[in-house]
């Protein structure tokens, strides 16, 4: 890495966030175009939402492949190849002849985009530890979540001058820019002597040890389950806001961006408290806020309450994600330095795999009902608390170490 990036955490976070932002851009940028695409392909809302599910599955599964590859071959080369393939897949999406091929291409696009998310996180673990890692992750989270602020608005701006096809051409150009960043700004952060053997059985053993690590899986599940609530919001609100409440595509993009601001507020809360509060106390505060916000959102959905009340509760849910995300990531990754790529892959893939499950659920009652959405985010908050209580928050007599495994 260039010296100025090594010595300046903010510049370094800006560089890595450019890659971690690729996931939000891939998922979010075409959201305001979903109703338009439904008409273009002459298909149903659920089929269009399936393209969102496909990209989330690609992002999840791709991390499980790219993470171990980066542990074996280093961080830079897998990232470079993935960015080239991302550009090609994005342009192909723009010229897809039918919805079936489009869904397949969205999976491929998500698969290769996953390298940006998982490898940027692995690089963080290569360089930071402890409270310093919590603080850096809060900065990275804050900067990365500018992507959800920008991407829907950028998508709406593109479709002002052209159709949804222009969105995917834009993503192809973005992929080319990230290819250039990888080639000229990213140096290798994982020395050869710290890499794991190039063996399929070794990769399986690494995943097996992570999946049996009680504390790691507890934090990973809390993180992943709550983020599945975010993806339910991503899939459901274009129809809820526009079809049920009559919000314009332009206003929808602004409101969607404000929820990204909520995540930034949460991450800044973490940055200020890191080193003052214990990390688990911060997570518990975030979980409490998530439960309250999700419960209020469900109440207003069931009663078809005013739009401002529903939006406010979703905003607070986003704040809770900003609180929980950086800390749960740090605590999960703390003792996984030698297999940081695989550990980051599990953390990231859980988010997108669970998001792929929650996204289609919000559309099961059609385009004019928000009830499945309300139930989904309520259940994510409850399940996150259950897994935290059972896998992480145990009596002291039952705690042995951060690497305790399931019996």
TrEMBL record:
It comes from Paenibacillus shunpengii. Its main location: membrane. Pfam families: MFS_1 (PF07690). It is a multi-pass membrane protein. Belongs to the major facilitator superfamily. Bcr/CmlA family. Residues 9-398 form the Major facilitator superfamily (MFS) profile domain. Keywords: Cell membrane, Membrane, Transmembrane, Transmembrane helix, Transport. This is Bcr/CflA family efflux transporter. The chain crosses the membrane at residues 48-67, 79-97, 103-124, 136-155, 161-184, 216-241, 247-270, 282-302, 308-332, 344-365, 371-391. It is found in: Cell membrane. Gene3D superfamilies: Multidrug resistance protein D. InterPro entries: Efflux_drug-R_Bcr/CmlA, MFS, MFS_dom, MFS_trans_sf. The keyword Transmembrane applies.
């Amino acid at each position: 890495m260039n010296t100025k990036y090594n010595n300046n955490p903010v510049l370094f976070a800006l560089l890595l966030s450019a890659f971690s932002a690729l996931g939000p851009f891939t998922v979010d940028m075409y959201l305001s175009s979903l109703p338009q695409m439904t008409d273009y392909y002459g298909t149903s809302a659920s089929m269009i939402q399936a393209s969102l599910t496909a990209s989330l599955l690609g992002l999840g599964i791709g991390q499980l492949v790219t993470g171990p590859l980066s542990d074996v071959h280093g961080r830079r080369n897998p990232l470079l190849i993935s960015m080239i393939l991302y550009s090609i897949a994005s342009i192909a999406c723009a010229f897809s002849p039918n919805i079936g091929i489009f869904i397949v291409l969205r999976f491929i696009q998500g698969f290769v985009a996953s390298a940006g998310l998982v490898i940027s996180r692995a690089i963080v673990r290569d360089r930071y530890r402890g409270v310093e890692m919590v603080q850096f992750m809060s900065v990275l989270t804050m900067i990365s979540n500018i992507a959800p602020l920008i991407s829907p608005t950028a998508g709406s701006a593109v479709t002002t001058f052209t159709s949804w096809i222009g969105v995917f051409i834009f993503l192809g150009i973005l992929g080319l820019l990230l290819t250039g960043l990888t080639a000229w700004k990213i140096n290798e952060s994982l020395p050869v002597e710290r890499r794991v053997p190039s063996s399929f059985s070794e990769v399986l053993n690494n995943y097996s040890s992570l999946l049996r690590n009680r504390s790691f899986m507890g934090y990973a599940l809390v993180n992943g389950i709550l983020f599945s609530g975010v993806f339910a919001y991503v899939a459901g609100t274009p129809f809820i806001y526009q079809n049920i409440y009559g919000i314009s595509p332009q206003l929808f993009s602004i409101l969607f961006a404000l929820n990204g601001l909520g995540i930034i507020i949460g991450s800044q809360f973490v940055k200020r408290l890191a080193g003052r509060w214990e990390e688990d106390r911060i997570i518990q505060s975030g979980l409490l806020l998530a439960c309250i916000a999700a419960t209020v959102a469900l109440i207003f959905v069931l009663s078809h309450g005013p739009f401002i009340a529903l939006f406010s509760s979703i905003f607070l849910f986003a704040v809770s994600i900003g609180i929980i995300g950086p800390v749960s990531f740090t605590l999960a990754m703390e003792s996984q330095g030698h297999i940081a790529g695989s550990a980051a892959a599990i953390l990231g893939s859980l988010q997108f795999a669970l998001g792929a499950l929650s996204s289609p659920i919000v559309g099961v009652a059609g385009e004019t009902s928000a009830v499945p959405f309300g139930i989904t985010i309520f259940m994510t908050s409850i399940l996150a608390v259950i897994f935290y209580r059972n896998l992480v928050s145990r009596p002291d007599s039952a705690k042995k170490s951060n690497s305790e495994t399931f019996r």
